[in-house]
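Reviewers asked in the last cycle whether our approach scales beyond single polypeptides. To address this, we selected a multi-component target totalling 514 residues and predicted its structure end to end. The input consisted of the following lines:
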Amino acid sequence: MYIPVNEIHKHFKTETPNMSNITHKQDQWSPYHDNSGTVLAIGIPGAVIVAGDTRLSNGYNILTRDATKLSQLTDKCILATAGQYADFIALRKFLQQRLQLYEFQNEVQASTQTVAHLLSRELYSRRFFPYYTFNLLAGLDENNHGVVYGYDAIGSYDQMTYGVQGSGQELVVAVLDNQLKGYNKINKTIPQTQQEILDIILDCFSCAAERDIHTGDNVEILIITPTGTQRIIKPLRKD
Amino acid sequence: MIDFDPSSFGLAHTYQKEDKDEINTLALPSAPQVIYKTLNGPTQINGGNKLNNFKHGTTTLGFVFKEGILLAVDSRASMGSFLSSEQVRKVIEINEYLLGTMAGGAADCQYWLAYLANHCRTYELKNGSKLSVAAASKFLQGILIGYRNSGLSMGCMIAGTDTTGQHLYYIDNDGMRLKGDIFSVGSGSTYAYGVLDNHYRYEMSLNEAVELGIRAIYHATHRDTASGGVVRVYHIHQNGWTKVHDGIDVVDLHYQFAQQKGLVGDGDEAKQRLF
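The resulting structure, written as structure tokens, was:
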């Protein structure tokens, strides 16, 4: 069909772009990155076992296969964090310095309960620009019983016998509910020895590595007992 | 030279947008998108999406009766649709004569009720007498009004005993403070109110009141997805407070009440719990 030049405007809609008809697509910068991974902690009488995978990711990229998510704050307690690694480092630095000051002033290391409360207050101090960290604080209490405190990003905390945080949380916690509490188990046998619990932990991380892309590479396990700390590293799927 | 309109002196100067103007705005960082634990509500991301905003998802209740005040709470906490804990302690022991219940944001409640506890203790040391329940609740209200519109989420009840008797107050993150005889807070509150309003009498005995509190929480947990776990019951009397029940599993209550009604199912479920 022939369109005369001076009638083109009737057939083709042209609009000059202006403030009202431009839709801006801005890539908003976000201060938060999820470096993912999974951590768990289990407390038993006489010991506490903390485990975390060592993969650091950012979206679909693996940044390193070798990053620890665990940090020993005092002889008796360990901080395990999933979430943003930068915030983990900042939080760890704050806690280490503050606990060092505590030790200088009081001539004794802070108890696990004290550290738990300190962590909660530090997280809440950033209520309106939170630390993107999902923490577990695991340690021995006054009676050398293993205790675990689970936190959300802004500092709400509760004592529990075991806890999981991170990208593999939903996968792993259901297994632990079944194995450690006996929920929905026909033959209710609860593990008693440290070795049985270590086996369960390794199984949990293997499961998480199978089904969660952000979990894998290695699992680092720290066992705190009144006599000291023991470290075990086991390999996981690297894909 | 910028021309100030005298009528806008001192106020923020705003541009009049014209079609020809091209204003380059720096992309500001977006508000933090952090997921934190709520007491039985969907994901709270900076105040929450209004559509999904389960305000104070949980079930807590308290009522005044002739023997004092009874508080009963459930124990479920969720992060989005994931149950982060079934064993949360939603009654906070502020001191030996004051209790606070939590609903809404777990961290907000924990922090500010601990702050209130600190304030009560300081007052006691400075003034030689205990802070009244009215004053304690008013103090908390003052704090929450200061943080209005900032995204805090709290729906708590302050219950306690002082020289004038036992009192129950409801405090809200909007700055509301109400004194009353019956309160229930949370997504399961409507179910709890139904049971409470049906059987409440001021002249109840302690046992009847405990029964009522447990039953109301059970019915709320039965019908509300965001409530569950265990029931915890506290009693406030003139000498302080007592923990009546530390944690009764609502699943046990279900089979107990079913049996009372004469329902046995096919027999196997009630007799042989797999969990």
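The longest strand of chain B covers residues 240-249. We regard this as preliminary and will revisit it once experimental data from Aim 1 are available.
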